[in-house]
Amino acid sequence: MSVAIILAMIAVSALMFVRIPSSFLPVEDQGYLFGAVIMPDASSLDRAGVLSRRAEAWYARQPGVSSVASVDGYSLIDSQNKANAATMFITLKGFHDRKEGESAADLIAKGKKEFATYQDGVTIPVNPPSIPGLGTTGGFEFWLQSTADGTYQQLEDKVRAFIAKAQQRPELTAINSTINTRSRQLMVEVDRERSETQGVPVEQVYSALQTM
Predict the structure, then answer these.
(1) How far apart are CA 95 and CA 200, in angstroms?
(2) Helices (H), 37-177
(3) What would the pLDDT profile of 71-108 be if each residue is shown by its tens digit?
(4) Percent residues over pLDDT 90 in the chain
(5) Which H/E stretch holds residue 15?
(6) pLDDT at 21
(7) DSSP codes, 164-178
(8) Strand 80-92 vs strand 122-126: parallel, antiparallel, or unpaired?
(9) What's the whole-model pTM score?
(10) 45-60 and 104-115 are packed helices; what angle lies between their axes, rounded to 10 degrees?
(11) What is the spatial distance between Cα 55 and Cα 36, in angstroms, rounded to a whole number?
């Protein structure tokens, strides 16, 4: 009898190894979601805030959502402080308080459909991985540093070449980088003396430029 039980356990274990996905971490409803707001390069913090408030208001109207908060200027994609990014934290109601169609997966699907109509920027709802760093939404990040006197364009060329090599690895997917040397930049020289003479604080000048 003991040998039969052990053999049955081995057979069940072998069957599970065959049937269960190799990632072994299915997507779960953990009761909260993230939202990444991505604006065009060089967008001001105010513009990112307008879009994040719009997405935040939409989530707040959903029956299955308990609360929504956003942090303007923080990028969920690469964990950097950026004027053209914002991050939302969406807390869902308890499982017993949510009805059919109000799960995390349902809210993500509805969010993608809603955010596809936004023209100012990109808003991406994200379901966190079951275990941080593992799962279909997990992964890793790395930094490439130029220690010589190369230009920013040369650094991007190296990054693109690195990504092209990494994409050849079958175990890696959705490889990307936030580096972009093609975005327009504007250099402004503020005449401090003239600003003070006309009674305009320099802080207001920089605030106006930030709004632009």
Answers:
(1) 55
(2) 45-60, 104-115, 152-166
(3) 999 988 778 888 889 999 999 999 888 888 889 989 99
(4) 33
(5) helix 2-19
(6) 61
(7) HHHTT-TT--S----
(8) unpaired
(9) 0.63
(10) 130
(11) 10
